[in-house]
From TrEMBL:
Protein's name according to its UniProt entry: Aldo/keto reductase
Gene3D superfamilies, sorted: NADP-dependent oxidoreductase domain (3.20.20.100)
Entry keywords, A to Z: Oxidoreductase
Keyword Oxidoreductase: yes
GO MF, any single term: oxidoreductase activity
Domain NADP-dependent oxidoreductase: 18-307
The organism of origin for this protein: Catenulispora acidiphila (strain DSM 44928 / JCM 14897 / NBRC 102108 / NRRL B-24433 / ID139908)
Cellular component terms per the entry's GO annotation: cytosol
Origin: domain of life: Bacteria
Keyword Oxidoreductase applies: yes
CDD domains assigned: AKR_AKR9A_9B
Amino acid sequence: MRYTTFGNTGLRVSEAFLGTMGFGEDWGWGVSVEDCRKIFTAYAEAGGNVIDTANRYTDGSSERIVGELLGTDRDRFVLATKYTLSMDDTDPNAAGNHRKNLRRSVEDSLSRLNTDYLDVLWVHIWDAHTPLEETMRALDDLVRSGKVLYLGLSDAPAWVAARAQTMAELRGWTPFAGLQLNYSLLERGIERELLPMAESLNLSVAAWAPLARGVLTGKFTRHGATEGSRTSRDKLTEHDLHIAATLDAVADDLGITSSQAAVAWTRAHHRWIHPIIGARTVDQLNDSVAALDVRLPADAVRRLEEATSFDLGFPQEFIAEAREFVYGPGIERFEPRR
């Protein structure tokens, strides 16, 4: 596995991150501790070094299992967790991005993970009820205390991330280094605003659900076996299945699995997108890791993207259409530096 820097920092991170949302059997569809160890070992042996978890995953079991698996090798890995989601439905302050929940969540996560610092702390989701200034200052305090080294933002609008970065730059606070976003052939919405912003601000992107909860593995289009799936056939549209079938055809033409084609597509345009691999078996883990060596031909990318029927919409498409009207015919002789 190859490495690159995490956003605008010097932290070296592997091409793919290991997702541990299914570590632990508390939610009924997760993985036993024994199988977690096998998956973790296979990922580490492949060269992966980023372990992604969250306080809420399997009600805290994921963090405890990750802490146990890291053991004395903890410093060799980039350990990332998240806060925001409630761990106590009876307490209104046990959720959100305010300072009180942040402090408690981080202390509890450190305890479950059996470590005294986090490499990356993700804000799990945008909280519209907490001032962004409060969140950014509280996060900066944690970085200054040494309990957190780098920051990331998950599941938030582009304007929130851009405002946060500007605020941090203006006030000398720690900015975000990465975004964690839903991205797959079935969910391309981040291409409208979030990906262009990430490129402009030099933010890494961790792509969750690159296989669309198994829909892009051939599970529904090839095998007809959906045991252990987090989704069901009745939740899929004919358009979803058309995309999955096109993916199967492209994969067959290239001699690779549907999963490999799906993961490879997430990195077809930007190498700073890191798919989060969530596996239930070592074979699934190895299959996704093998996708990192796949370079999809331009024609294959075109076929896949045409099947999605995805439109950027306004204002991106209007700006592109108005290009010559705005700049004049001479724009065709202009070569931008970026």
